[in-house]
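Researcher: Next entry in the queue.
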Amino acid sequence: MNRALLLITLFAATNLAACNKPEVVAVPVAVPTPVPGPAGPAGPAGPVGNTGDTGATGDKGRTGSETTVVVIPPAASAPSN
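Model: Structure for this entry, 81 residues:
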């Protein structure tokens, strides 16, 4: 029994050691970013754009009646659990 337990332990340790492969990590090389130079002279101004036309005037609305309608929202109900 002791020999079988010893052999099983050795076999398990060998299998675990064989599966352990070191992982190679490639570290990216930092590329230095170039420093921008001074700003150049300003370019010429662009042309002035066209303005839009004024829209047509809408039709006059109808006159109201003497009836006033008031809409009252329903009362909030109690939350259901």
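Model: The radius of gyration is 42 Å.
Researcher: Noted, moving on.
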